[in-house]
Specification:
five-stranded mixed beta sheet; globular; 26 strands; alpha/beta
Amino acid sequence: MKDLTRSIIGLMLAAAGVLACNASAVAEAPSLRVGVFEADVTLPLGHPCYPSYEPLETTEFPLQAKGVVIGQGDDRYVICAVDWCEICNSAHTIVREKIAEAVGTTADQVAVQCVHQHTAPMAVLDAQRILDQVDGAPLAFKEDVMMDLFDKIASAAGDAARRLEPCDRIGTSEAEVERVASNRRIPNGDGTVTTRYSSCTDAELVAAPEGIIDPMVKTITFGHRDKPIVQLHYYATHPQSFYGDPRQGWDFVGIARERLEDEEGIPQIYFTGCAGDVACGKYNDRGREARDGLTERLFAGLKASAAATAYQPVGELTWRTHGLTAPSRGFDVEKLKKQIADSDQPKRNRISAAQDLAFVKRLEKPFELSSLQIGDVFMVHLPGEPCIEYQLYAQRLRPEAFVAVAGYADGGCGYICLEQMFAEGGYEPTASRFAPEVEQPARAAVRALVGK
């Protein structure tokens, strides 16, 4: 009888031990803390602004940098979207370093993506320093203004890092966006393409199919006990409706984003995906009615995706980084210098030549890519203007997971094309600073970022 009693007690103790182990496992399960931030990064009126580089005359909407600080243990990670066209080369490094210092982390754990509106600044610090050495050269960006705005972003991120709140759920969802995105590369049937730009009134090009796009907006929600803290949206199209005049604003993507934030009372952050060869040309004639339509249809997609959020417990966190290097497309340095110095050239041409020269000077320095994986949810951050095929490739590599891709980190490389595009022609290869050989290292980088 005593032996039986001992056996029963032993079984009870063993069971208690198993329960204790399970309780310990629950206690040690991955947990996050998050903080949301926002900073005003509007240029002062009178400052030159892309694409004309003429002095700004009006602010249609104040530009914003919106982001989230994610903490796990002593580690801090930052993901940020800025209502600017591009942040290039050393400017991109500087803003990440400033944020990292304010948050208490390292620059390689900070991702800064541009939304890429074309009524917004092009931060080309290295190009401007080249221009500054030429008498009478145009002004692209005032360095002191740039640094002040970067400091604003860093300060806001630092404040968020000091008020992190618990996050035990991550939500995922998606919804189709109708009649917004369309591929810019229209096949001619002979191995070449014609470009359908962001606005188009050519009836034949408008009638052409949408082509290769990703029709889905993907949403990632950080939450606590099924209550959303912040929502991140990813959709691939050039965010251009009408543009080129001396104003700044966030275009239809920002209007839809802020409308959803006002309605839901939840911070909303929008990232532009791999939209190098995707724009709104099929549905945009540059008129106000067209922009209103784009806004309404994108808003409907954002709202539907947010409403479909399905939560799961926070999984293991992994932050990955990868460097991308590839040969230059080939630039005649002396020709670039002559173009920069030529006062008869339009401002934009001279500034573009300075950007090309800045790329040549930094060519050996890798472009830094990163990704954040939480459980089976991936947030991939790519530089430049990657074509849509890289986003679709990332998703195909992880069909069992939820993969959201943002482009437009360091914009110094221009477009990231497929090799075949250089033979097909069209606009995109002319705006790439990489050679056709970039495709394979770019694909390798995507594989690394999704753990393949």
